[in-house]
Structure formats: structure tokens, C-alpha cells
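Researcher: Structure prediction, please.
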Amino acid sequence: MNQQIEKIKKTIEPLRQEIINHKVYSAIKNIDDLKVFMKYHVYAVWDFMSLLKTLQINLTCTTVPWFPKGSADTRHLINEIVVGEESDVDQNGIRKSHFELYLDAMHQCGADTTKIETFIDVLKNTGDFNAAFIASETPIEAKEFVDYTFKVIGSKKDYLQSAIFTFGREDLIPGMFLSIVSDIHKNFPESISIFKYYLERHIEVDGDHHSHLAIQMTSNLCGTNEQFWEEAEQATIESLQKRIHLWDAAYKKIMNTTSMLTEHS
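Model: Predicted structure follows.
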């Protein structure tokens, strides 16, 4: 494998381990805890799609008249990922994006989707991120997470977008979390079957096949440019730090909610 890819992997490994072994997972004991986690996580699921589409726009021709753009190999890589992320299948074989599938999971378990839906509605109608964050009362850590993603999107540097897409998003859901969800599912199959399916699908498609495609895409875009690789490494580090802050916030909210319920019981 590309030596530069290996260098980034080695550099970010402590951060990846911090995310994979984050205390937020073990704090999730029941459906109520899971609902809190999902209200934070859904922002990362949504802006992942925006990052994905940015790469498709930058690496392929999405305007008319059509002209060949960039490397056909790279076009193939991003288009294949887009198909899987934007039009996958749910449990019933119905085509859905992973974000729509996640919203279905939230609705099924009773998680509040008001914030993320208000955020999207306001953003769609106004194009104003700050107005959307304020109207939806988005948690500050979720706002900072989304802000960083869109800072990279706004950089117009496809190799940075590809780097945080590749190393800051893929295969970060640990097996431990799936095990916890599976245990809850045994007792409440009608409440979290969609979320369990989402995680299994994410691990199957994103963590395996898509991660290999994304690594090749990043290698293609950085090429032999040392500065590109250095910038890509730094962007990836910042992206992972934002993820840790998001998880910290979810953990704090879960613990506070649990504490309040204990006091009132």
C-alpha cells in the first residue's frame, strides 16, 4: 500500500483508538440513552452525504454539456461510493440514502428528529447555516463538527475532502457498539431493528468495500505531491478531533439525562 497512506494511518491511530474505545458506547444502556446518541450522531450522517456529493461534483462532470473530467479511475471510485450511500436498500429492499435510513431508525425508536429536520428545512429554504443552527437549537459540538466539514468543502481542495471522507468517517463504528445495540435489540426488536440494520449495513458496505475505494481515491488525488499529503494528514487529524468532541458531548448528555432520571425516580 502507498507509503503516504500508511503514514497517515500511523499518525491518526491514537485518535482512531480514542474514538473506537470512546466511553459514550458503554454509557448506552437502554433505548433512551441510544436516542440521545442518535440526536448527535445524525448530524455526522447528514454532513457525510454533503461531503460525498461535493467529491462527486468536483471529480466528475455534473453539468451540461458533458465533457470528460479528471481521471476515469477516480470518477469510477466516487460514483460507485455515491450509488451505495445515496441509493442503498433498507430492510424491505426499498431504495434509500443512508441518511434517510437513519431518520427511519430515529422515528422507529422514538428519538426526537425535530432539531435535524428543522436544521435541514431552514438551510434548504435560506442557505444560511447560522440561521439553521439557531432555529434548530443544534448542539454546539454538532455545529462545530458540521462547520469543519463545510470548511473543508469550501477549501475547494478535493484531496482534503477525500482525506477526511476516507480517514475521518469510514470504519469508525466499533464492534462493541454493534454488540450493545444487539443486546438492546433482543429486548426491544420493534424499536431498534432499523438502527441495527443501519449499523450492520454501514459496517458491511462502508467499512469494507467503500473504505478501499476511498483510500484509492485519496491516493489518486494526492499523487506524489508532498504538500498535498501533509495537508491531508492535518485535515484528517482535525476531523477526528471534531468527532471526539461530538462523542464527548453525546456522552455528557447521556450521563446528565441518566442522573436527572435517577434523581426523579
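Model: Strands lie at 88-89, 95-96.
Researcher: Thanks, that helps.
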